[in-house]
TrEMBL record:
Transmembrane annotation, as ranges: none
ATP-binding as UniProt keyword: no
Keywords for the protein's UniProt record, in alphabetical order: G-protein coupled receptor, Membrane, Receptor, Transducer, Transmembrane, Transmembrane helix
Subcellular location: Membrane
Secretion signal span: none
Domain of life: Eukaryota
Native source organism of the sequence: Magallana gigas
Protein name (database record): G-protein coupled receptors family 1 profile domain-containing protein
Length: 368
């Protein structure tokens, strides 16, 4: 649950929610893929099916699949991608330059980065820390993402996230009016423990990048759901996204389609499970494929969002809800098929054994 764009449970709970939610969605797709293998064995090689898909083997396979899905979705927890309720960043550039002719023979790097007691000391890092601390105090609805400092050219890049558009607009206005500089750097430039005299500090925000962040990313994060952040903020966003997409969606979907085509080529009528009365061929195939396809809109809007394409908030919400509830597709298919067959059997007056015997006779004669 989120309020004002911020995840109520904090960052740790946000990470856990997104991690296990993605793991469960992946598990549903992988389990549906396993079910198509089970149907394939049942149709093509019934004897081997009874040996492979015993109750204990089936339980072990499902546990193994869940462990696999947990591992496949763990990358963002270790920096390969990111789980977050925020999307994108607002970049604030702080530029330090020489402002005194007496310092023209000096270099920024020699002033800003010095050796103290054998260790590297960076005044620019102190400046960055001061800026972040003051910013979070004066603009409380902002969240620190990271800082990048470069002593060679005297630049600090603050990566900030705003909880909503009002906060972002206010921050941009305060930077444009120099209010930000007055609050953050007042007295710091000339302090002996600060940057020292002879230096000037300016703050910049790229208006085009800000507009893209405001319109695309903040609009997306306003749905208040912790999920993968597909924005270019993350250094490994492309590789991690392609990896998760291929291993938990595209790969299983291709396998399900192939198994379905193989099965449909071998039979001419719906096929009852050899292990029970609930799992039917049509439910497994259609439910599994629909489960995987339900995730496609979520990835599509995220890739569009990655390129700063503005997506309607309602569409974002619907696609995200479809993704997190994708596993219900196959369960719903099972339930409908089960209820339908129970009603049919009762209306015809056949018991389960009689229905199975009739099916066996039909299969032996080639009449479905």
């Amino acid at each position: 649950m989120a309020a004002s764009g911020s995840w109520v449970g904090g960052n740790v709970f946000c990470q856990l929610f997104a991690y296990f939610s993605n793991s469960l969605v992946s598990f549903a797709i992988l389990a549906a893929t396993l079910a198509t293998f089970e149907r394939r064995y049942a149709v093509i090689d019934p004897d081997k099916h009874l040996q492979v898909f015993t109750p204990i083997n089936t339980k072990l396979l499902l546990v193994g699949l869940y462990m696999l899905s947990v591992l496949l979705c763990a990358g963002p927890l270790y920096g390969w991608g990111e789980y977050s309720s925020f999307k994108g960043v607002m970049q604030i550039l702080i530029s330090v330059s020489l402002d005194d002719e007496s310092l023209q023979n000096s270099t920024l790097s020699s002033i800003l980065c010095q050796q103290r007691n054998g260790t590297q000391y960076s005044k620019l890092k102190d400046l960055s820390t001061r800026a972040i601390n003051t910013l979070l105090q004066e603009w409380p609805l902002t969240v620190r993402r990271s800082e990048i400092t470069n002593c060679m050219d005297g630049r600090v890049i603050l990566q900030i996230r705003a909880e909503n558009t009002q906060v972002a607009d206010r921050l941009l206005k305060d930077i444009s009016s120099n209010y930000f500089d007055d609050i953050v750097f007042k007295g710091y430039v000339n302090e002996s423990e600060g940057l020292g005299s002879g230096l000037s500090v300016e703050t910049f925000v790229n208006k085009d990048e800000f507009q893209a962040y405001r319109d695309a990313y903040i609009t997306f994060q306003s749905i208040g759901v912790c999920s993968l952040d597909f924005s270019p903020t993350n250094a490994y966003v492309i590789s991690s996204t392609v990896y998760i997409l291929c291993t938990t969606l595209i790969g299983p979907l291709v396998v399900m389609v192939i198994n379905s085509l193989v099965i449909l080529k071998r039979i001419k009528c719906p096929y009852h499970s050899l292990n029970g009365d609930v799992t039917y061929l049509k439910s497994v195939n259609i439910g599994g494929i629909v489960t995987a396809l339900s995730c496609v809109p979520y990835y599509m809007i995220n890739f569009m969002n990655m390129h700063s394409i503005v997506i309607n908030r309602t569409i974002n919400l619907i696609c995200t809800a479809m993704f997190y509830n994708a596993g219900l597709c196959i369960l719903l298919g099972f339930f409908i098929e089960y209820v339908s067959n129970v009603i049919k059997r009762r209306s015809r007056g056949h018991s389960l054994m009689e229905a199975t015997e009739l099916q066996s006779i039909g299969e032996s004669t080639g009449d479905c």
